[in-house]
Amino acid sequence: MEPTLIIADDHPLILKGLHDFLIEKSFNVLASAKNGKEALALIKAHVPDIAILDIKMPFLTGLQIAEKCKTDNISTRIILITFEKDEDLLNEAKALDVYGYVLKEFALEEIENCITSVIKDKPYFSPELLSYIEVNDIPEKIQSLTEAETNILKLIAENKTAAEIAEELCISVRTVEKHKSHIRAKLLLDSKSATLYLFAKENIEYL
């Protein structure tokens, strides 16, 4: 049996596009809402399997609805759709047990996979969003390095050995290895010798 769905978005064109797409794909759309208040009322009235909600809506946001569903033990699984590529929002959504998080520009391409995943009890987060966050996380991680660690990483990018780095910076090989260990810990890298070189090479523009 097809899962029951409720959809909500305050942009009429997006709401209609999503509604028409889901109907075309034979999904069981029970109702649509154009703001958060309507959406929550529909969820409480129908308790659908899934609610697909815009993250930002008048009266109540998608996150606020997710929070109310969690507090009231409503079994409806929440999928949020958004233009926001924001790690804090994603983490907030995860903390509220949101099952799906899809970027609007990929909504029609991804929503079917997302629903299928959620039905199987597997959360789905837009791959584009995850890779965007990952890439934008890198400069922040690099900023956590000290000046000495950054200098060592630059020399690693030039494929220099610990002995060569020690000679160039007038420090001991042991100190170089200690710095490398700290760099790995801060950048969450494994201990394979090539990992540090590959990271340094790929992210040289941030150093």
**First and last CA, distance:** 54 Å
**Radius of gyration of CA atoms, rounded to a whole number:** 23 Å
* Structural class by helix and strand composition: alpha/beta
Number of strands: 6
Element pattern in H and E: EHEHEHEHEHEHHHHH
Task: Briefly note the CATH topology name of the largest domain.
Answer: Rossmann fold
Residue-averaged pLDDT = 89
Quick one: CATH superfamily of the largest domain? Response regulator
Given the C-alpha coordinates, what overall shape results? elongated
> Which CATH C-level class of the largest domain is it?
Alpha Beta
Helical segment tally?
10
Helix percentage: 55-70%
Question: What is the compact description of this entry?
Answer:
The chain is of the alpha/beta class and 207 residues long.
Please describe what this structure looks like:
This protein is an alpha/beta fold. It folds into two domains: 4-128, Response regulator (Rossmann fold, 3-Layer(aba) Sandwich); 138-206, Orthogonal Bundle (Arc Repressor Mutant, subunit A), CATH 1.10.10. 57% of the residues lie in helices and 14% in strands. It is built from ten helices and six strands, in the order βαβαβαβαβαβααααα. It has helices spanning 12-24, 36-46, 62-71, 87-95, 107-119, 127-143, 147-157, 162-169, 173-187, 193-202, and strands at 4-8, 28-33, 50-54, 77-82, 100-103, 124-125. Strands 2-1-3-4-5-6 form a six-stranded parallel sheet, with helices on both faces. Helix 4 (87-95) links the parallel strand 4 (77-82) and strand 5. Helix 8 (162-169) crosses helix 9. The longest helix has 17 residues, at 127-143. The protein is elongated and about 70 Å long. The mean pLDDT is 89.
